[in-house]
Amino acid sequence: MKNLVKPTLAAFVSLFFPKLCPGCMNPLFGKEKVICFDCQMSLPQTDHLWDFENVLWKRMNQLLKVERAVALLEFQKQSRVESLLYQLKYKGQQEIGSFLGNWLVPQLKQSNVFGGVDVVLPLPLHPKRLKQRGYNQVQLFSESLSKHLQIPLVDDLVYRKKRTRQLAKMRGTDRFVEVEEAFAVRQDGHYPPRHWQLVDDVITTGATISSCGNAILEACGGRISIVSLASRLS
Ligand SMILES: [Zn+2]
Known about the structure:
CATH architecture of the largest domain: 3-Layer(aba) Sandwich
Number of helices: 9
Largest sheet: 4 strands, parallel
CATH topology of the largest domain: Rossmann fold
Radius of gyration: 19 Å
Number of domains: 2
Structural class: alpha/beta
Bound molecules: zinc ion
Helix content: 40-55%
CATH class of the largest domain: Alpha Beta
Shape: globular
Order of helices and strands: HHHEHHEHHEHEEHE
Mean pLDDT: 89
């Protein structure tokens, strides 16, 4: 009897409190679990997966040497992508990360952007920020990539030694000053990975991710690639 009651109750609750799509904030229906079909059809994907010498790769190579740099979605102000990433980062909707990861895996496999990569590294938050937010917004996205592409995820080799202020309202040059030497690498005596795939949510100036990448290159050499959910450069 219990099994019959539960779905009915869930349906009843969802009738009055429907789950909203984090992209367009319209109610989800039927088989729409995280993001509505309309958003899935219209989210603007970049062409980075099919052009490794893309605008982001060129920009990042001005800041540090990268093998590949790929953003999956185009970020624009007041867009569905901005809404999605806001809900992911500030409203506890971590499942958006898993959804986007699972959704994009076939394309990531086909493009071979992760080819030759040894480890997937979600860009670490400062411990105080992590405690405040309760989660790293790129953790589940990174876990999805790690699982489906069968590349180990490491989240304990690199850490933030400096708590930086929110970069969103800063000018470009100030961002670079703010994140300077913000990251450090734990040297635990093991042979370090040779090719790191760093994962971020949004790349704007590239200040944060290049600071992290440069800390890794200075500490243990190797190669750096970058995957971001979205980029404002594209
Ligand atoms: Zn939607």
